[in-house]
Amino acid sequence: GNSVTQMEGPVTLSEEAFLTINCTYTATGYPSLFWYVQYPGEGLQLLLKATKADDKGSNKGFEATYRKETTSFHLEKGSVQVSDSAVYFCALEDSGYALNFGKGTSLLVTP
Amino acid sequence: DSGVTQTPKHLITATGQRVTLRCSPRSGDLSVYWYQQSLDQGLQFLIQYYNGEERAKGNILERFSAQQFPDLHSELNLSSLELGDSALYFCASRRGGGHNSPLHFGNGTRLTVT
Predict the structure, then answer these.
(1) Closest Cα partner for B21 from B103, B101, B85, B94?
(2) Which of A39, A94, A107, B50 has the lowest CB atom count within 10 Å?
């Protein structure tokens, strides 16, 4: 079935460092891909999405490109801030329109 | 604030008991999703409703059931509870059924089974 695999955390970075969180997927057809973020004590919020191959989703300095050839959707940010500390989830949407999430990657940014 | 309201925020109960979790979707949203989040399993899709009808089923146990009412709020019923059912249960809603409308999550109900 459709599934998402993302890198295990926790990831600890210093402020202004470059961030990459890897995400690969297995799917039949061409799913839509998403990154969600969860801050402590809150629900998940949509960070960005891409609905077809070569699409780039971006929001708040975060970017991810839908790569069909490598079945990947890696999340990147050029300069992280302390406020970016959260858990990040990669997800795909299958034909039934239910989101399948990865296990989440915890990010801690230190001053 | 996502506009999705879940009650209660916390629930502590004993094994063998039954509980009901409630979700009010954002105004105008027709689809409601239920997810279970635990440390070992991550975020697992349980079930989806669209305008009162069951639309998709995920890894939902037979001891669990859900429904969506005419006013579009939804309830998730968990019965014969086991220690392993302790988790954070999220409800999410979206306008329609597909990827063109974002999924909005509530803040979850934390269930502790003792």
Answers:
(1) B85
(2) A39
